[in-house]
């Protein structure tokens, strides 16, 4: 049931972002935690951030590439409708499903579905959710060249605090280890064009410290599972996050 | 963070029930799963079922004792206000906290807080939740003889399907192993006074099969965590429950 | 207010499905119940299931045709975007509204709006909901050839348990009569391509038995009304579903 | 399943109110509708309104007695903890269960459970919900002299608009008939001490008109079922409430 | 932080409607209140109501123009996909963002996001929400000719009672002043084609009286803020709406 | 409608806490903001913290007294059931109502009603909500010596992040002014017994900074209104909290 636990090489993690810095700001600490433990991670970034107030596409691409490397992840850029122009089209979901079949991850990460955030975020989240299904349907013509693949779990991350869904009980990933926090911070700072005018890095670390304080550890990142989680026994089902 | 995982003897599991058969019908398969894996389990039953339509208190006590033994659990009966008479009183919560300090469990199980079920169920759930806190407060005079104890996690179980809370994402425990299902069924059948007129056992196994079908396994019992769960990494965070 | 109740021939029921087997698996027992009582039923199936893992389009069409006949319903196939390709377009809603104006049903059935299921299901549900409105607007040019029609009620059905909406109180339809259960089961088994590898039929009957147990009858199918229900008096407003 | 529908004399309706005017203001039109159709109705009023700003207990008792008569209902007063002093005690629920066993109603009406209203309202609602269960448990010593009774359905009414629960889909009862509206209005005006300073009657009729406009009729009162409603077929399941 | 409070000329209010009468019926009283206080108001109407049952496009345009004038607002018509044909396209959101940058409002009003209403309403609401973000992103090529603009707040209005969102705490605007009520009523009556067959005006005034009764004033219109509201102190944070 | 806005001396603010430090940690910055602006504030603390792990009752009383003084508030201690022993009794609500009638505040602050926190917090919140009603009922014998008083608004504060209610849209109070932050921090540090082992002060300031970042200011405290807020116009209704 959980082949990734004991296998010599766990299945890779696949993370999708709408903009060059979404993955890092939303769940960079989790990526660092996983690659540090020897898991492969791959990023798919669906725009060059060309509609943002700061940073030219070329610079943003370079920043994302550097940041992924710091986190130990590989990266690719996928052109869909462009920054601030993303729409929910089946054709996009099929492209994402194609990547899922190629990378064959156990865990997929995508921006949350909360609508009241940057419109690209929730739309990409919906596309990834649909793509995770399409990836395992056998009859899809456009995907015929690749073997169907069923992922183990889809988790949503929240790029900003108000993107945290209220109707899903989160899963808390402990990222307190100093090496992880440092790597995460470095990866966020690599997006220099975004951190020059506003303190995004501090915002994210503050969020993680606040959740960590609640859970009795240093830093925590909350992920939101798309499906209830199945465990072999209670011994595997984590511990509760409450210290205050 | 998860000392129970590798330690030679995991901390015991403590389950509370309002009536002699609540624990078995609500989560007996999980108990069987845990004791089979070598964990100790202890039941606290807070009435003798004396207001029920079927079964005298003496018979119900005997049934519960036999059933607990089948599940590999120890059992004690605690008199609070009596069957169908339970009220939410701090004095009760303190008694329950005393038991928590004595048993020193990592996991506590209690009936869910959904109000629209047998009134004793939700009230006991609230008392256990409060007791789990009181058990770790250092200054409580009445609990002074016992060292404070912080549990790892409180899970709620649903005695019937309509007692499943809608606002908590459940955790699914796989209880498909034939030995577990058989033990669970036997433990429910031990409550002969309750199963003679209505097919409670079938109801519970049907629920477990339906959840199992959803998760791609044989039988599953859903538990509802009182707090978000903390994990060391994604590799420990289970897999998603979706097969249809 | 409820002219269908006493009229010699009640207005027909109109059910929409995204795939050849959705209606049968989601609410086939209700269809059997209604046609048995002399009501006409018509199915509109919006793909040939061509993206599914099992069953070629031709076979699936034949299966659906046979299954509808078993349930006493007529059937038509409507090409929209194709299986796993459905998008929410006004042009689609207008086509569905055209069918509503033609069939002039009192009750319309559609897959639920829960997003976390096969993407075609929720999208078709939204299209049908919109179509039910468009069908009664007088000024729509493309619908001008047909007289506007106001349906009495739109109910959503859930193809799988996780498609049951949590924020709508369901209406429980008693389908316990042996003849109804048998007809429903036969109609599901008619989709042989879908039932060969997974026990879909058992899944649905188990769901219905579980709901039935809750309501004190044999089998129940839950439907989810799009609007609150209006009754002439309390004597018409059903009875509560609780037996445990 | 719905024996009340065709039986010569339907089982009575039993309505509980925390104060002398709660039933009338919350659902008086429904009472008028039912008694007009030949159903018996009985009111249980659990205080004399002695904490209210206007009206002495004696006057309020007289007003309630007159108002019940106008609605064709019998009435009794039950002393629990007194106006504005009601607490949720099992002893109270047992008293209410005793009345349920005596009156043997099919339908029970109680104030809604929404907490943010007069505290007596929600507490009485909870007591009635618990009493409806206790009334059918066979082993309760204090209720032993009366045969257990299972009601068909418990509906909650909202004394004021903000007491309408948001998480239950309401059932709309059409009370548009002029005779019903007139009787309801007269019953409300009978509470002269309460209507002299504020326009409570207008508030309630306005609510009913607004809901009626939504449903395409004159006046509607919304009731909130404690359990999903079971119907024998779709033909019995009402029609949707939407006209705008 | 609240420059509009003391500034000689407050920033204008910008209201979007899907049909010629949506703004007036949904929140006309608020518009009257603001223009009476000297604030400029501008309407953007995104169809001519050409799919409605009553009223030709030309008549509806004239009615809307007259109605806006009565409310002291300017008006423009924007062609998107046409009445009953609106789809959520980024190109539309960009057009709306262009208007926001041109008008530079502090407050924006849009129809609510509740899905179960006229499909154009919720879709326009989503487009306006997205547009409010796009208006402040610096890098959007198509908007390059206009300076980015950040609005102060986006409020949703509900064209009909069932369009009121349940998950947002509303803000209540007191529109009791006789002059405001009269102006609002006149503006609604200006839509003669819509008010001839159904009493829409009465419906809206009834809604406002019901909310007013709750708040202890004559008439109130509820608006639903897209973001939590920030205040400089409690003295600025209004008073609670409860009188019954 | 908002007499406190322009009156020379605004009505006092009344804050209730279950333990000596609840008010300060939950909303101390708001208190500082109000007293700095010349409003009187009064604290009612309902235990001496005698069940806590750290700090003897005497020390805690002294700390709370000092802390209130730092915030410019007066303080009184009220004995109800004792720390960790609070129950929801009408007799308690009447005592709190007596204080409300004596102090005659416009705004009342109380701990939130979220159940999954220290049990005393939610219970005190419920008692204060009930008390706010009882304070304005004219007929209550035990309150007869004091004139009824209707407060303007009840706001809930969250002592810890997990006590923030999810179903109420918060109101954000800007407490960024350096003098306010410093006063608030000092008031929290005055509870030396509570801050010696865990970094409660840092937890609260982090929360406020995170909310502030969201709102585009330095520090924000969220309050949760018990009733929708009524405003005279949009110009008074704050601005939206979104900067990211």
The pLDDT mean of chain A sits at 92
Tell me the total number of β-strands of chain A.
9
- β content of chain A, as a range? 15-25%
Q: Evaluate the radius of gyration of chain A.
A: 17 Å
Strand order of the largest sheet of chain A: 3-2-1-4-5-7-6
Distance between the termini of chain A: 34 Å
Shape of chain A: globular
**What kind of sheet is the major sheet of chain A?**
7 strands, mixed
Secondary structure category of chain A: alpha/beta
SSE sequence of chain A, one letter per element:
HEHEHEHEHEEHHHEEE
Seen as an oligomer or otherwise, the chain set is homohexamer
Q: What is the tally of helical segments of chain A?
A: 8
Low-confidence stretches of chain A: 1-6
Helix content of chain A: 25-40%
Please name the two chains that share the biggest interface, counting residues whose Cβ lies under 8 Å from a Cβ on the partner chain.
A-B, 49 and 49 residues
């Amino acid at each position: 049931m959980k082949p990734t636990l004991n296998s010599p090489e766990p299945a890779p993690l696949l993370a999708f972002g709408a903009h060059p810095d979404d993955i890092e700001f939303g769940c960079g600490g989790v990526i660092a935690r996983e690659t540090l433990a020897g898991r492969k991670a791959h990023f798919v970034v669906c725009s060059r951030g060309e509609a943002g107030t700061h940073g030219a596409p070329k610079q943003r691409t370079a920043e994302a590439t550097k940041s992924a490397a710091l986190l130990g992840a590989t990266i690719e850029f996928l052109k869909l409708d462009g920054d601030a122009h993303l729409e929910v089209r089946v054709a996009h979901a099929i492209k994402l499903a194609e990547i899922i079949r190629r990378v064959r991850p156990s865990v997929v990460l995508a921006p949350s579905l909360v609508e009241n955030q940057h419109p690209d975020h929730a739309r990409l989240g919906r596309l990834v959710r649909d793509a995770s299904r399409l990836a395992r349907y056998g009859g899809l013509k456009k995907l015929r060249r690749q073997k169907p693949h069923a992922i183990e779990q889809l988790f949503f991350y929240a790029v900003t605090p108000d993107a945290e869904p209220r109707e899903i009980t989160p899963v808390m990933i402990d990222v307190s280890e100093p090496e992880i926090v440092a790597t995460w911070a470095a990866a966020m700072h690599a997006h220099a064009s975004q951190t020059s005018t506003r303190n995004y890095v501090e915002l994210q670390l503050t969020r993680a410290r606040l959740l960590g304080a609640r859970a009795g550890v240093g830093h925590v990142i909350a992920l939101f599972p798309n499906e209830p989680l199945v465990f072999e026994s209670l011994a595997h089902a984590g511990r509760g996050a409450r210290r205050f």
